[in-house]
Amino acid sequence: MSNYISMLENRRSIYALGNDLPISEEAVTNLIKAAVKASPSSFNSQTSRVVILMDDAHAKLWDIVENTLKPLTPAEAFPNTQAKLASFAAGKGTILFFEDTNVVKALQEQFSLYAENFPIWSDQSTGIAQHAVWVALSEANIGASLQHYNPIIDEEVAATWNIPANWKLTGQMPFGSIQAPAGEKEFMDDAERFMVIK
């Protein structure tokens, strides 16, 4: 089996995070940048945008999420929600993934025949970038998971960190040291998922 497939298989959702990284903050930042830059996008549009929150800014994000969710969550369920959010906050940082909607709109205007597809392709681009970063972090022995508290946190996130209005939040990736491995992963039967046609 190729090293690449092994890297894909090793990427898992790690929820037990710590704030000690096996590499420097600068190395992590460079790794994230390189993974995003190497990720393909339709028409080489490079719509992905990234904000890397470390330490206090990282903790602030999860305070925002908790405060936003509290009035929206049944009181009896909120302790479980708090515990989940605390596991993310225990990490070293969070990567905020965005898509630049101005670029998407410009492409829609320039290539009107494909206008309805550009938002779809933008979603695909952010997914590819998120996956590339996740695999790169895993390969560096850094745990991560992908969360989606957008759009309910969008407004406060934008106000807190002066995010451009044309950047659309698409995901949050808390990361840190791996305090406990992921559980076993189950796969559905290949016959239900794949077809080979000759």
Task: Explain this structure.
The structure is a single chain. This protein is 46% helix and 16% strand. The model has no long low-confidence stretch (mean pLDDT 97). The longest helix is centred in the middle third of the chain and has 22 residues, at 118-139. The chain is α+β, with helices and mostly antiparallel strands. Strands 1, 2, 3, 4 and 5 form a five-stranded antiparallel β-sheet that branches.
Any key phrases for this structure?
198 residues, alpha+beta, five-stranded antiparallel beta sheet, 8 helices, 5 strands, 46% helix, Nitroreductase family protein, Nitroreductase, Frm2/Hbn1, Nitroreductase-like
- The arrangement of helices and strands along the chain is HEHEHHEHHEHEH
Q: Count the DSSP helices.
A: 8
Would you count the extended β strands for me?
Answer: 5
| Helix content range | 40-55%
Structure classification: alpha+beta
Our estimate of the beta-strand percent is 15-25%
Report low-confidence residues grouped into runs of 5 or more.
none
Radius of gyration: 18 Å
Largest sheet: 5 strands, antiparallel
Mean pLDDT across all residues, rounded? Answer: 97
Shape: globular
Report the end-to-end length measured between terminal Cα atoms. 24 Å
Protein name: Nitroreductase family protein
InterPro entries: Frm2/Hbn1 (IPR033877), Nitroreductase (IPR029479), Nitroreductase-like (IPR000415)
